[in-house]
Amino acid sequence: MSVATQTTSLDQAEQFARQVLVADGEHPGEYLGARPEGEWAVAHSFAAQVPGYGGWHWCVVLAGAPGSDGVTVSEVVLLPGDGALLAPEWVPWSERVSAGDLGPGDLLAAPPDDPRLVPGQFDTLDVDPIDADQVGQVAAEIGLGRKRLLSFDGRAETAQRWHDGDHGPEAPMARNARYSCGTCGFFLPLAGALRAKFGVCANEYGVDGHVVAIDYGCGAHSDTPMPPGGQGSPAFEAYDDGAVEIFESR
Q1: Which InterPro entries does this chain map to (predicted)?
Q2: What does the pLDDT look like over 86-127, one tens digit per residue?
Q3: What SS3 class is residue 131?
C-alpha cells in the first residue's frame, strides 16, 4: 500500500475514531475534521460534551504503517480550542502569599536561602552603640542566641517598604502635619541601623504601636499647642453665649 493510499485511509477513519471515544465511555459531538500528524498519522477532532469544559474538543490520533491496512490508536486527549475556559497559570504558594494573609494558627517558614536573613554569627552591619544584635552575634558563635539575623539586603528592603508605606513621609497624614515624629515625645526610636530613620509611636491617639518614619507626622504630636483658652476642640474656639443678644419672637 502506498503512502497516499494509507494516509487517505486514515483520513477516512472518522467512525473508527468516534468508536474509540464511545468505548471509553465518552459522548463525542459533531465531527470537527482531521489534520495530518506526519506521514503515517492523522488527528481526528470531535466536539466535547463534557460539563465544565466549554470550548474543548476530543482529539484521537490514529496511526498506520507502510504495507499494512491496520490502524492503531496512538493517543486520545481532551484539548482546549479558541476561547476555551482554562485554569490560570499555576503559581507556587510561596509567590502567592502576601502581607496580611497570615492568620491565627498559620505557619509560614522562611526559605533556607531567604536573602533577607543570614546566619546569626554573620556581621550584619547593624551598627548601634547599644546594639543587642552584636551581643547576639557573639552568642550565636557559641551556640546561643538567634540562629538567623536580618541581612543588609533584608534591612534595606524593610526600610524601603516602611518609607513608602502608610506611615512614611509621603503619606497624606504626614504631608498635612505641622510636626514630624522625630521631634515627638511619643516617638520611640528603633535599635540598630534603622534607629536613624524609624521608631514606634507610643501615642494611643496617634498610630499607637506602629513603626513610623522619623519624618512621618500627625496632628497628635507632643508639641501640638492647646486650643485658645484651654477649652474646646483644636478646630474651634469655645462658644461664648454671653455675647449673644436674645430677642422675643412675635
Answers
A1: DUF3027 (IPR021391)
A2: 888 888 777 787 766 766 676 666 677 777 767 766 665 665
A3: coil
What amino acid occupies position 238? A
In this structure, is residue 149 part of a structural domain? no
| Separation between Cα atoms, residue 65 and residue 69, nearest integer Å | 8
Domain of 174, in residue numbers = 154-227
* Count of structural domains, the chain: 2
Is residue 221 in some structural domain? yes
Q: Whose CA is closest to 58, among 39, 32, 77? A: 77
Question: Could you give the CA distance from residue 22 to residue 27 in angstroms, rounded to a whole number?
Answer: 6
Determine if the pTM surpasses 0.85.
Answer: no
Q: At residue 172, does pLDDT exceed 70? A: yes
| Sign of the torsion angle spanned by Cα atoms 57, 58, 59, 62 | negative
- H or E element at residue 136: helix 132-141
Largest CA distance in the chain: 120
CA 34 to CA 113: how far, in whole Å? Answer: 51
Last-in-domain residue among 31, 65, 80: 80
Q: What are the grid coordinates assigned to 239, written together?
A: 462658644
